[in-house]
Every structure is written in structure tokens, then in C-alpha cells.
Amino acid sequence: MGDQIQFIVEKLNQEPFRKNYNLISFDSLESLQLLQLLSDVLGEIDPKHAVDIREEPLEQTAKRILNLLGILKYKPPGTVSDLSAFRQGLVTGSKPVIHPLLHWLLQRTNELRTRAYLARFLVKLEVPAEFLQDDTVADFNKQYEELMEAFKNLHKEHEHLKISGLSTAEIRRDISAMEEEKDQLAKRVERLKKRVETVQNHQRMLEIARQLRLEKEREESLAQQKQEQKSQLFHAEQKLQRAQVQLKEMQHVVADSKPESLMKKLEEEINFNSYLVTEKMPREMESKKTSVYFLQKVVAEPAMTQADLTALESEKNEVNAQINQLVEKRMIKYEPADSKFSMYRQQASIISRKKEAKAEELQAAKEEMSSLERQMEQKSSQAHELEGSEVLTEDEFKQYVSKLRSKNTFYKKKRLELAEISAECGVLQRTEELLRQRHEAIQQHLQAIEEKKGISGYSYTQEELERVSAVKSEMDEVKGQTLDNMSEMVKKLNAMVAEKKASLAPVIKELRHLRQSCQELTQECDEKKIQYDSCAAGLESNRSELEQEVKGLLEECAQEESNYHYINCMKRSLEIQLQRAREEMKAYVSPDPQERRRAVREQYTRIILEQENLGKKLREKQKIVRESHGPNMKQMKMWQDFEQLMECKRDCFLKQQNQAAIGQIIQEGGKDRLVL
């Protein structure tokens, strides 16, 4: 906390505040001075808030500061209860609330100044949906949003240019370079003209090139017109879509309703509106007028100290205790008939309160329904802009989901078939690889045998050919024997494979059934998973809605609590002022002269008389001063002349003394010379 206060004091002593505070003087500031200091800091961030809070109502000051803090995105520390305490502390100018706020503001003044400047242009005005049905209002609203987007882009470009750091010297260099390029291009054009003049029909070619350029410009303008017409067509389609939605809603209402139900609905709406006009609105207006009247009286009264507030609080508690005692006595004196009437009155008041609560709930539900309809229209328009197609209805979405499920099952079947084929392909590839390896081994074995037998494979002589033929015959006999052995081995292997197939046939059949059941279970599992995901998504959305509702209710509760504390303070101050007025009236009407002297009117009357007497004395004194002004000025002039004369004499005397001293020194010097 000490470092925080030190930082605040240092920042306030710098430009542009220059407050010349130290830690002691800053800590000794009162609540009103702290609020004025906070208002000055906010005025430096946003010039609209440079206000003297003494000339502004306290409620307006608190509302203004809270609105600006909301725009600046200041988050008070703590929970919702701390939020209500923060608001109360801001109204009363509490140091634990003002000091962290000043520290946060002074840490990021430049950033907050930019944010406050942008908020003047980027805080969007919410237009009700019923007004947006008008084409003119919709066009103005769209133009307003386009201007807002243009302002965003221009501000980003401005910030980018500021960051890029382009200087005037660089711009001048660029301009000079562009002028040089312009001169070079002009010279090149001149050279090209001279070359073209030697070509035949150059005028016709230039005319054709000019026409080509004009046609390209016309093509660009036509493309731009086409784009504008596309946008107009899109807006017209949106309007048509909104009109079709309204037509469908009206047709649905007309188809599902009867004249009796329509009349009943209209009667209910008329009753509700008449209740609002005749009962609820007048009461609210009367309460607002009363509160405004009392607030004006509070504003007109002078400021009160903490001691006055404590005294009035104690008096209020005593009066409340007396009221409770009187109410208890009155309840004891009630007769049975009066108790019955009181019970009926209580029931009537309870019913009226319930009626008011239901009316407020109905009004809030209507407002919520209108806002949800606006959101639905916005979402549908956004979806149309993104995908270029209409939003699916519930039945169409169900059909689309069923098609996706059928395609999903077909895809899973094909994927299983592909997996089986890939597995079989892997087995065949492995068999092929084994056979290739075996073939390579046999080839190597044959090469080794040939090398052992002395056959090199090239540059054989005739003798070697004969020997090779003999060896070949021998090898043919050996191969014949090996082939017989291999055929017998193949027969044995085929027999073994047949036996294995016969033994594995029931297992394969069972495996097929198991695969089919596994496929069915997998499909069922996927369907259950989809159901689970949809249910979880619905529960999650409900939970988020409930969280939002709870958050809104907590904020509303905090706001109402803050309003309660504020109204309670206003009530206390009004009661105190009313009590003072009663005491003043009582003292003024009292026949006792001592009581009358205590009245504020009598005190002010005495003070006025004293001030009038003092004014008379001062006027007489002023008259005397005016009469003696001339002689006194003349006497003062004479004294000034006398003072100048005496100073002149003093200067002459000092000069004479100095000259006498100098003559004496000269005489003494002459005597010394004579002696020498």
C-alpha cells in the first residue's frame, strides 16, 4: 500500500497535474477532495469529465464516474458483495476504494485516453427491432454501422502510420524520387512517340489503343455497377425473407387460432395495458416525482459533517423505537373486527404485490422475446451471408440428420470391406515376399553349385561345353529326382491345407457371425454416443443459460443493494433535515423568548443586525478616511521630501569625512618624506 501511495503522489506531482503533494498531505485529503482528485484524473483521460463536483449533484457524479469506469473496463477486486461495497465507497469517497482506482488510472493513462476517445465513436446505439422494420431507419442504421467500420479502419491506419515512423525528410525524398521518375517517364514517352511516328498507320493504332483503354474503364465501371446491384439484390432478398417470415408467423397464428381465442388474447392484452396505464405507471410516476422532490431538497441543503450524521442516526434510531412501541400498542388495542379487516387488507396488499410482480415478469418476458427475435433475425442474416443458403427448419434438419446417419452406416460397411481387403492384400504381399526370397536363395545356391562345378558363364571352350553338357545331363537327372520329391511334398502340403481348411471352417463361420454382431454393436454404440453427445450439449447449454441468469440476478441484486444503501442515506439526510425544520418551526412558534432566541431565524436576524451595525461603522470610518485623505497625502509627501533631504545631508557629511581623512593621510606622508 505504501508503494502504491508513493507511485500516486509521484504521478500527481508530474505533468499535467502538478499537485505538489507529499505522502502526509495526500493521506490527509478528505473524501470530497479525493473525489475531486479522481474527477480531475478522469478529466485528463476524457475532457468531458473535467467537472467541479461541488457544482454537480452527488448522484450525477457517481453515475458519471461509474459509466466512464465501465467504458474503461475497470474491474473492482473481490466478489459481488465487494462490488456493492465498491459503489458505496465510491459515493462516499472512501480511501480503500479511491487509492487503488487512482493507481490503476495513473499506470495506464495513455492507453485509457485512447480507449475513452474511441468509446465516443464506437459505443453502438441499440435501435429497437420494431423501428428497424422501417426502410429509412434500417438504411440509416446500416449507414451508421458502415461509418463506424470506416472509422475503425481509419484509426488502425492512423496508428500504423504513427508506429511506422515516417518522417517529413523521408516523404520529401520520396516526392523527389517520384518527380525524377516522372521526368524519366516523360522522356521515355517522347522517345516512344518519335519511334511510333516512323510506323505506318500509327494514328489509327493510337486510336485503337485509346478505344481499348476506354472499353476497359467501361468494363470496370460495369463490374462495379454489377457488384452494387448484387448488394442491392441481397438486401432486397433479406427484406423479402423477413417479410416471408412475418407472413408465415401471421399465417401460423391465423391457422392455429379461432375468433374466440383471438378475442380472448386481445382482451388479455387490453387488460394488461390498461393495468399498466391506470395503476402501475401512475404509481411509478408519483414515486419518481416524490424521490425527485426529496433529492432536490437534499441538494438545496448545505453539506453535513460526520458528527451531524451520527447524531441524526441516533435520533432516527430513537424515533424508530418509539414508532415500534406505538405500533405494538395500537395492535394490542385492535378489536376482532379490526383484526379481520386487517387480515383482508393484508391479503389484498399481497394480491396487489403479486399482481405487480407478475406484470413486471410479463413485461420482462415480452422484452426478452423481442430481443430474442432480433437475435434470431441477426443470426439468420449472418448465416445467409456466410453460406449463401437459408437456415434449415426443424423438420428439414431432422431429415438431414437421418440422411447423414444412413450415409454413415453405409460408409462404415464399406470401411469394413476395405479393411478386410487390405488385410488379405497384406497376407498376399507377405507370401510374395517369402517366395521371392526363396527364389533368390535358390538362385544363389545354383550359382554356388555352378561355381563349384567350374561353370563361369562366359568364354567357354568346346571342351568346357562338352563337360557342361555332361554335367547338364547329370543335373537334369538330379532335378528330375528333386522335382518328384517336390511334387510329393506339394501333395502333402495340399492335403495338410485341406485338413486345416476343414478344421477351420466352423471357426470361420462363427467368426463371421461374431463380426456381424460386432458391426451391429459398433453401429448401436455410435448411435448411443450421438444421443449422449446431443443430450450433453443440451444440458451444457441449459447450464450456461442458468449461469448467465444467475450472474444477471447477482448483478441486479448488487445494483438494488447499492440503490437501497443510497436511498437509505438520502432518507436519513431528509429525516434529519425534516427534524431540523420541525425544531426550527417549533422554536419560532414558541411563546418562550428563550426558545425563540435559539431559533435559526432569530440567530440570523441578530447576525444581520450586527452586520448592518458593523457596515454603518465601516461606512463612517470610510467617510473619515476620505475626508483626511488629501491632507494625509500632503503630509506623506512632505515626510518623503524631508527623508530625501536628510539622506542628501548624510551623503554630504560622509563625503566631507572621506576628503578630510585623505588630506590627513597626504600630510602625514609629506612629513615622513621631510624626516627622511
TrEMBL record:
Residues 3-126 form the IFT81 calponin homology domain. The lineage of its organism: Eukaryota, Metazoa, Chordata, Craniata, Vertebrata. Pfam families: IFT81_CH. Component of the intraflagellar transport (IFT) complex B: together with IFT74, forms a tubulin-binding module that specifically mediates transport of tubulin within the cilium. Binds tubulin via its CH (calponin-homology)-like region. Required for ciliogenesis. Required for proper regulation of SHH signaling. Plays an important role during spermatogenesis by modulating the assembly and elongation of the sperm flagella. Belongs to the IFT81 family. This is Intraflagellar transport protein 81 homolog. Residues 137-253, 309-389, 483-563 form a coiled coil. One of its GO terms (molecular function) is tubulin binding. It comes from Anthoscopus minutus (Southern penduline-tit). Its main location: cytoplasm.
